[in-house]
Amino acid sequence: MSRPVRRWALGAFAMIALGACAALAAWWWFREYAPDRARFPIRGIDVSHHQGAIDWRRVARDDVAFVYMKATEGGDHRDRAFARNWRDARAAGLAVGAYHFFTFCRPGADQAKNFLAVVPVEADALPPGVDLEFGGNCGKTPDAATMRAELDAFLAPVERAYGKAAVLYVTPEFLAAYAEALPPRALWRRSILREPDGAASWRLWQYHNRGRVAGIVGPVDLNVLAPETALDRLGDAP
Fold it and tell me: Based on the domain organization, do 48 and 4 belong to the same domain?
């Protein structure tokens, strides 16, 4: 191998090695990212059957104070892990809440009946959560007035039954489309690796979608409470 070729090969190898190190550092930063603990001291997770069997006592020992777990979706789907997760997470001492994935293709009243049939009425539970997003939803995209009417039809019986205002989980895309049509409820913002704007308007921040927590095999969503927010005030409207 001639010297120019050798120098080119060594330079190329160095560039590849440098790129690999940069990629590894970026992946490590992404995986370990967490908001400032001094500002966001209360951490939680949200789960569904996709997390499989969970060791909730290990979860509770890993700096996790609360959990939202999927209960229902649409008018008839029920998460097969909900009852077990609800029972075992409560037994481990975690604050628990249930959420419903809201679909645009079923009436809100039907979806409320599904949620009410699954989630226990327990005074110390977190407020009901409503997952509002386009990802995984049906192909219908209603206008703002129709979306609001069906969401109200869901919220009225649910909030009456549990005695608490719901928390609305919103993705950036959903918020951009329907921000003006949303009812005045506390928001649970999805904003991966970046603090949401408008701090006065949200109570929960889902900051990671590939986090790691003891007791759960594989990735899990990570959340924090907004500064100066207590779990027992989570449902307070902004």
Answer: no
Q: Residue 204 in contact with residue 195, Cβ under 8 Å? A: no
The pLDDT of residue 28 is above 70:
no
Same domain? 68 vs 115: yes
Q: Are residues 123 and 220 in the same domain?
A: yes
Instruction: Mark whether 182 and 215 lie in a shared domain.
Output: yes
**What is the per-residue pLDDT across 32-43, written as a single tens digit (0 to 9) for each?**
688 999 999 999
- Give, rounded to a whole angstrom, the gap between the first and last alpha carbons of the chain: 70
**Does residue 238 fall inside a structural domain?**
no
Print the domain residue range for 10. 1-32
Integer Cα distance of 128 and 165 in angstroms: 7
Cβ distance 235 to 127 under 8 Å?
Answer: yes
Torsion sign, CA atoms 106, 111, 113, 114: positive
Dump pLDDT digits (tens) for 203-215.
999 999 999 999 9
Model confidence at 52: pLDDT above 70: yes
95, 188: one domain: yes
How many domains does the structure of the chain reveal? Answer: 2
User: How high is the mean pLDDT of the chain?
Assistant: 90
Q: What DSSP assignment string belongs to 215-227?
A: T-SS-EEEEEEPT
| Largest pairwise CA distance in the chain | 81
Q: Which residues pair with 188 in a beta bridge?
A: 169, 204
Q: What is the per-residue pLDDT across 57-69, written as a single tens digit (0 to 9) for each?
A: 999 999 999 999 9
154 and 190 co-located in one domain: yes
For the ranges 18-27, 52-61, 70-79, 140-149, the lowest mean pLDDT is seen at 18-27
Does one domain contain both 144 and 185? Answer: yes
